[in-house]
Design a protein that fits this description.
alpha+beta, Jelly Rolls, 3 domains, four-stranded antiparallel beta sheet, 11 strands, elongated
Length: 264
């Protein structure tokens, strides 16, 4: 295929896309299958699940919903990268997402795991509109993208909504600060105990729970090498603190593991 033929077809396609005399653009969007899943029917649906969006009136919800779209991700796919422009506020509608700092020499630190109907992104929203961490999917995930300018308009015009958003940012900051204290002052067994308790109680809300994190993810969550994490996990298993069966982990001695977490 010659370059002239290729670029000629590209030009024709562009003209068709921006033409007002036909619905070719709509047909193309259908061909590439832009659609919303059953998890994300509209912002009114989120209104019933998110304390933040419950504070918006119908007009504000319509504004947020106006340029909203949903994207599906497979396990391990990056959603946004540290240092890139922050163009959207994100709401997780299904699956799990890890938020992590990209450090020196290729070392990462997982800050937290996001569950469905939790919001993430927006760290630099009113500063420099940049992302200060990377987000990646841990399993099959769907994410709702809300235009950041529409979101800002709601923050500026709705004081209750603004206060709840600030509360969300503050709560996340307090959690991350406590994580840094734990990671820098606790011994390795205490950090591994923290990670297991966090997943069982806060993320999966189940014991036993099926793990979607890799051993490398666990290492990055506890600021340990992969080898050190695996060694301590085996010690916990040998001591009867946990039971491992394939992808499942059960905390067999909850009080004992909490004690290890507390004493570090």
């Amino acid at each position: 295929m010659s370059d002239r033929f290729y670029y000629g077809n590209v030009l024709i396609l562009c003209l068709l896309l921006f033409s007002k005399k036909n619905n070719f653009k709509d047909k193309l969007l259908i061909m590439i299958n832009f659609k919303r899943s059953v998890n994300c029917g509209g912002c009114n649906d989120c209104n019933m699940k998110s304390p933040l969006f419950s504070l918006l009136n119908e007009e504000e919800l319509a504004l947020v919903n106006k340029d909203r779209f949903e994207v599906s991700y497979r396990p391990g796919e990056m959603i946004f990268k540290q240092g890139t422009a922050s163009t959207h506020i994100l709401m997780l509608t299904s699956g799990l997402v890890k938020l992590y700092l990209e450090g020196y020499n290729g070392k990462n630190l997982i800050l937290k795991v996001v569950k469905p109907h939790q919001m993430f992104g927006g760290r630099g929203l009113f500063y420099d509109n940049r992302n200060y961490y990377t987000a990646a999917s841990l399993d099959n995930t769907t994410v709702c993208f809300v235009n950041v300018e529409n979101f800002k308009k709601c923050v500026r015009t709705n004081p209750d909504f603004a206060e709840k958003f600030i509360e969300h940012l503050n709560r996340t900051s307090v959690y991350i600060l406590s994580r840094f204290v734990d990671l820098t002052q606790k011994q390795m067994p205490g950090r591994v105990a923290d990670a297991l308790l966090y997943l069982a109680n806060d993320i999966y809300e189940s014991n036993p729970f099926k793990v979607t994190l890799s051993r490398q993810d666990f290492a990055e969550m506890t600021s340990l090498s992969k080898e050190s994490f695996i060694r301590i996990l085996k010690e916990f298993k040998d001591e009867g603190l946990i039971v491992m069966n394939g992808d499942f982990i059960e905390i067999a001695k909850m009080d004992a593991l909490k004690k290890i977490s507390q004493v570090g």
